[in-house]
Amino acid sequence: MPKPRAVVDFQKCMPEKCDGGVCVAVSVCDLRVLRQQEPYDPPMLKSPDLCLGCGDCSEACPFNAIWVKPM
C-alpha cells in the first residue's frame, strides 16, 4: 500500500511573505525532503519517496499551501 506524502499547492504558496523568503515548512522537515533552491523560491519535494507523510510541514505552513496526500 502506498504511503502518504506531502504535496505543495503552488497557487497558495507565498514564499515572499515568509521571513527572509525562507519557507518555515522546509525548516521542520527532519529528513530534508522539502527544500528551497533559493530564498523566495517555492519549496519543492526532493526525493518524494523519502517523505514519511508526517504532516509537520503541513502544520508549519501559514498559508495552508502544503498538505499530506494519501497515495
DSSP helix count?
2
From the 3D coordinates, which CATH architecture would you assign? 2-Layer Sandwich
Which CATH class? Alpha Beta
Q: Outline the low-pLDDT stretches.
A: none
The CATH topology corresponds to Alpha-Beta Plaits
**What general form does the structure show?**
globular
How does the major sheet shape up?
2 strands, antiparallel
Indicate the proportion of strand residues: 15-25%
Q: Could you tell me the number of beta strands?
A: 4
Separation, N- and C-terminal Cα atoms: 8 Å
pLDDT average, as an integer? 93
- The domain tally reads 1
Helix content class: 10-25%
Cα-atom Rg, whole angstroms?
11 Å
Specify the structural class.
alpha+beta
- Name the helix and strand elements from N-terminus to C-terminus, one letter apiece: EHEEHE
Strand order of the largest sheet: 1-4
Q: What does the model show?
A:
The structure is a single chain. The chain is α+β, with helices and mostly antiparallel strands and 71 residues long. It has one domain: Alpha-Beta Plaits (2-Layer Sandwich). The protein contains 2 helices and 4 strands; from the N terminus they run βαββαβ. Strands 1-4 form a two-stranded antiparallel ribbon. Strand 2 and strand 3 form a beta hairpin. The longest helix has 5 residues. The model has no long low-confidence stretch (mean pLDDT 93).
